[in-house]
Write a structure and sequence with these properties.
Distance between the termini: 11 Å
Order of helices and strands: HHEHEEHEHHHHEHHEHEHEHEEHHHEE
Largest sheet: 6 strands, parallel
Radius of gyration: 22 Å
Strand order of the largest sheet: 3-2-1-4-5-6
Helix content: 25-40%
CATH class of the largest domain: Alpha Beta
CATH topology of the largest domain: Rossmann fold
Length: 424
């Protein structure tokens, strides 16, 4: 029924509204300092966060700065410059912007304030390579890390040790007090993992970075391996670690996260008279395997009425991974849904949605997709080879053919994935 499709899509819209930086930023803004306030930031939500700062900063208080965001994610601002750059693979625009940020932050004194606005995507947008490396090295490593299926925490352990600004190094370059406001897209909401923690202590090491490369068989550029090996031998300084005195003048505040969005989605379902259960805000693992667990839970509910009766909405967040084996299009949300469809085999009472809150699921311009009970039948009617599409990592083609993609455009926020199974 069309009504179920509308309900699950509207629950996603409610989740997005709860993660909107325009609402999340103002309650956390500090008082202006005696000196200057410099705003720096990076991520998919950076422009929206910067605009929120401008709109709620005292009119007579000094304010300047610059943020870098993904292409097509910019907004018009007055006092904080917005730069657009490459994501998920870094580019020259990101390098130029991040180098300028380092120059700006070094001009601050002890009476000033550095206000940092961070969100998912910041790791690639702050594209300043460490000494001896080039931005092309960062590009090559990012492509390899995206393909290998490593969780974001391991990816960022590598990126921090190839960077001149990530892993606490932005805060280390500053003499002023630092406050970072953070929109979390990482399970666990630890600031060290969000945008690779430019203002947070880094517990990982050069040895950890090399271990990730070895674990996933990554074909790293020679310059990258040489740099990391020099770091492991102590020839290059480590990233600032927990307990470092510099963090006594640094505050990191997560201002909105996946849990906020999931709870808003659950509240929407409750308003529709549907019991809603938030399973977890931190589900990780291979998308197709996570789908099998969700399908098993759905079957238990349908067959036995356990652990919840129907109607019920099962809501979850987090960040799954996809190990690429084919050349198709899509992302972890559509990959999850296609695997779910195949495992459920056309259960007549299960509707699904999986979308990334940043509006971008993998390689295309959709946030995710909707799964209807008749999806497999409609695919068969169109002559689609579902197993071949799944094997080629081409979930996008499946949902595009059915006109079931969810397209939001840039949301300018990012609190990771929103998944829901509505069992009627």
């Amino acid at each position: 029924m069309q009504v179920y499709r509308e309900i699950i899509i509207n629950s996603f819209k409610a989740a997005l509204a709860a993660a909107d930086p325009h609402a999340a930023v103002p309650p956390h803004l500090p008082r202006p300092p005696a000196g200057r306030t410099l705003v720096l930031g990076a991520g998919k939500a950076a422009a929206a966060m910067a605009l929120a700062v401008e709109q709620h900063w005292p009119a007579g208080a000094p304010l300047e700065g610059m943020v870098v965001t993904r292409y097509r994610h910019g907004l018009l601002t007055n006092r904080i410059k917005v730069i657009e750059a490459g994501h998920p693979v870094p580019d020259d625009a990101g390098e130029v912007a991040a180098r300028e940020m380092l120059r700006m932050v070094r001009s601050l004194g002890r009476d000033d304030l550095l206000l940092v606005l961070l969100s998912g995507g910041g790791s690639s947008l702050l594209a300043v390579p460490a000494d001896g490396l080039k931005v092309d090295d960062l590009k090559a490593m990012t492509r390899e890390l995206l393909r290998c299926g490593a969780p974001i925490q391991e990816m960022n352990a590598v990126r921090k040790h190839l960077s001149a600004i990530l892993g606490g190094r932005l805060a280390a370059a500053c003499k002023a007090s630092v406050m970072a406001l953070i929109v979390s897209d990482v399970t666990g909401d630890d600031p060290t993992h969000i945008a690779s923690g430019p203002c947070a202590p880094d517990p990982t090491t050069y040895a950890d970075a090399l271990a990730v490369i070895a674990r996933y068989g990554i074909d790293a550029p020679h310059a990258v391996i040489t740099h990391l090996e020099r770091g492991m031998r102590g020839e290059i300084p480590e990233t600032p670690k927990p307990g470092d005195g510099l963090f006594e003048r640094v505050e990191n505040h997560v201002i909105t996260s996946a849990q906020t969005a999931l709870q808003s989605g659950a509240a929407f379902f409750a308003g529709q008279g549907v019991n809603a259960v938030v399973l977890s805000d931190s589900i990780t693992g291979e998308a197709s395997e996570v789908a099998k667990v969700h399908a098993a839970l759905a079957r238990q509910i349908i067959k036995h009425g356990q652990p919840w009766g129907t109607p019920v909405a099962l809501i979850s967040g987090g960040e799954c991974t996809v190990t690429l084996r084919g050349s198709g299009r899509g992302g972890r949300c559509t990959e999850f849904l296609l695997a779910l469809a195949m495992d459920l085999g056309g259960q007549a009472t299960v509707w699904g949605l999986a979308c990334d809150t940043d509006g971008i699921d993998g390689s295309e311009d959709n946030a995710g997709a909707v799964l209807t009970p008749d999806a497999l039948q409609r695919a068969a009617d169109k002559g689609l080879d579902v197993k071949a599409l799944a094997a080629n990592n081409d979930a996008w083609a499946f949902f595009a053919a059915l006109d079931d993609l969810v397209v939001t455009g840039p949301t300018r926020t990012n609190v990771n994935d929103y998944r829901v199974l509505l069992i009627t």
